[in-house]
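Bug #77: duplicate submission created two jobs. Keeping one. Sequence:
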Amino acid sequence: MPDLLTHVLVGYSIGTLLSVRYEQVRPAQVTLVMVGALSPDFMKITPAIPTGPLEIVTDDPISWAPLHTLGGSVLVVLLGSLLVAPDYRRQAIALTAIGATSHHVLDVALLTATGEAYAVFFPINTYRPPSPDLYLSTDRWPAAVAGVLAAVSWAACRYDLTEPLPISD
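Kept job's structure:
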């Protein structure tokens, strides 16, 4: 669970910092970055949607695991953009893609037994990049760091820390 919280907080931080820089990015668009940061973990939907009935129809085993790759993220981002009004689709695609990219960057840094990350570039390539082995998905400290980052980005947005503070004599 700390892994999901970390992804949401990092997505919030990125979206909030984008909203400080670009005025067309509002709180609703920050939510798109957060959803994009969660999108690769849609593969964890298996307990909620059993694949048994689908496997009977297709006569093949079905796995949600490809959603946690680059190809799966592109698919989720493009399908998700269909839920948005046509005027906002480009922005929705860009923001959810930014969130999904942050998710993959964080997951490539996970500690693995083999020292290699997952095949993040599938279906383009099955190459497994070397993992820097920074943390486990069950570690709590990345969520704490992401929480501090989210609080700082919230304060930067709320109090507009981009303007110089007045100095009194």
